[in-house]
Amino acid sequence: MLDKVLATIRKYNMIEAKDHVIVGLSGGVDSVCLLWTLNQLKEILGIQIYAIHVHHGLRGVAADEDAKFSEALCEGLTIPIEIVYRNINEEAKLHKISEEEAGRKARYACFYAKREALGSGKIAVGHHMNDQAETILFNMMRGSGLKGLSGISPIRGVIIRPLIDCTRLELEDFCREHKLPFVSDLTNELERYTRNKIRLNLIPYIEQNFNPSFIKQMSTMGEQIREEDAYLDNQADYFIRMKMNTISNNIRSIAIDQLIQIDKVIRKRVYRKIIFNLSLGLKDYESKHMLLIDALLNKETGKKISLPYGIIVEREYNELYFKTIETTSESWEYLVDNNAQAVDVKEINGKFEFKQLDNLNYLEISQNKYTKWFDYDKIKCNLTIRNRRTGDFICLNGINGKKKLKDYFIDEKISRDMRNKLPLLTDGSHVIWIVGLRISEQYKVSKDTKRILEVNYIKED
Questions:
Q1: Strand, helix or coil at 237?
Q2: d(CA 458, CA 461)
Q3: What is the DSSP secondary structure assignment for residue 180, as one 8-state letter?
Q4: Which of 249, 350, 370, 395 could share a disulfide with 442, CB 3.0–4.6 Å?
Q5: Cα-Cα-Cα-Cα dihedral sign, residues 426, 427, 428, 432
């Protein structure tokens, strides 16, 4: 089995030389095998191993014994271990989740805390091939899509699963062969948990009556689906990189005419990824939510839907906007001093640079979206960089072509959210530059201009 584990590690490039590897150690057969095999391979891999045991505070004396066992095991292998005590019952009540979910979150929080303390490293957990089959069946019963049917990924970020190609029977045989002790968690035998029912009843029934190789074939199926799922993910990622606009920290947008050019399968992934990007999670999101978003492509402007955890998706003209409910339209304003050379604007993560010129030929002024030139002597007040205000106007067709900014935005089909986010360079209520769109005719450089103000807008990463 050592050779199989080493092959899995190399197949998925799980570990590099000099890595810190943090092993989640419960004391059960899978985590004991994981710790022992990695310890046997540590010279070949060039790694340093640490163990973390999380005491959930749920099973009384039995949990205490598991902690003592884990500590003794690591002492015998000269592997440093930390025993972390958590009150999972209280954490579950606090976050209104099951004890099973609270325990999982607590364990990974402890693993990541240890990694942060070490400065780097991989987190190794003991999922095996049987866990893979259980997960796929569990997700299938919930009506999951490809991602759920792909099962457990062998590697996800810094989390690695070196035993994923081994069956539970192989792990038990390995422990017997090498006389490795392990503990048993009696809660794994309780049939009130759906996963336990799948493991104890459903999978044995399928193996006995339909396919004795069911576990391995489910693992193979999961791997094939993961490959196809990764391809579709890459397509969605590429589309987002090329087409998504980041308006602010909590607003994203994509042009509808771009969305309708890609297949619905990719569109739904795009939606999921944008939501994840905004909320850092997809819990409670289902396929029906993605279909509701997709239906907005055929709705009129102004239509919107509210989704779990404060996400709102709204159609505005040719744009589909994704935003969190915390989105606000608070006013912000920066006064530009007469001698200012640069002004940083944190609300839009950008910077304005100012330069006075005396000898630029107005006929040589080029068209540039984010650099503009103005007749300096026509500026009446101190310049201000801000978002819109009631009463703002811009001159479009010569000195008498005054137009309310609100009307201009409506005519140009600028969404309501974008209207509040667009930076404006203003002279009082007169908007001399709607950044990225146009400047006021009244401030344009002409043959009579004596002094020129050059303004450059830089969007910072």
A1: helix
A2: 10
A3: -
A4: 395
A5: negative
Is the pTM value of this prediction over 0.85?
A: no
**CATH number for position 250:** 3.30.465.60
Q: Would you tell me the crossing angle of helices 88-95 and 99-118 to the nearest 10 degrees?
A: 110
Is there a single domain that holds both residue 10 and residue 102? yes
**CB 311 within 8 Å of CB 290:** no
Q: Do 81 and 178 belong together in one domain?
A: yes
Task: Calculate ∠ Cα 363-364-366, nearest 5°.
Answer: 110
Tally of domains within the chain: 3
Residue whose entry in the numeric block shows the structure tokens 């969007």: 459
Give tens-digit pLDDT for 214-232.
999 999 999 999 999 999 9
Whether residues 28 and 176 share a domain: the answer is yes
Helix (H, G, I), strand (E, B) or coil at 413: coil
> Where do we find the tokens 């893979």?
132
- Please indicate, yes or no, whether residues 188 and 290 belong to a single structural domain of this protein: no
What is the domain range of residue 6? 2-223
Give the domain CATH number at 351.
3.50.40.10
Residue with tokens 């137009």: 403
**Beta bridge pairs of residue 453:** 356, 374
Supply the Cα-derived Rg of the chain in whole angstroms: 30
Question: Scanning the structure block, which residue is given the tokens 């791997």?
Answer: 223
**Among 283, 306, 324, residue at a domain's last position:** 324
Give the C-alpha separation, 105 to 92, whole Å. Answer: 10
Exposed e or buried b per residue across 101-115, where buried means at least 16 C-beta atoms within 10 angstroms of its C-beta: ebbebbbeebbeebb
Given a cut of 70, the residues of the chain with pLDDT beneath it are: 187, 190, 192, 280, 283-284, 325-329, 359-367, 398-400, 461
The amino acid at residue 123 is I
Q: Is residue 403 domain-resident?
A: yes
Strands 452-459 and 350-357: antiparallel
Q: 198 and 56, same structural domain?
A: yes
- Identify the residue whose tokens are 């794994």: 188
Same domain, 63 and 190: yes
> What is the tens place of the pLDDT at every residue in 313-335?
999 889 999 988 654 457 888 88
One domain, residues 265 and 204:
no
Select from 425, 461, 423, 417 the least CA-distant residue to 443.
425
Give me the torsion for CA of 8, 10, 11, 15, rounded to 10°: 90
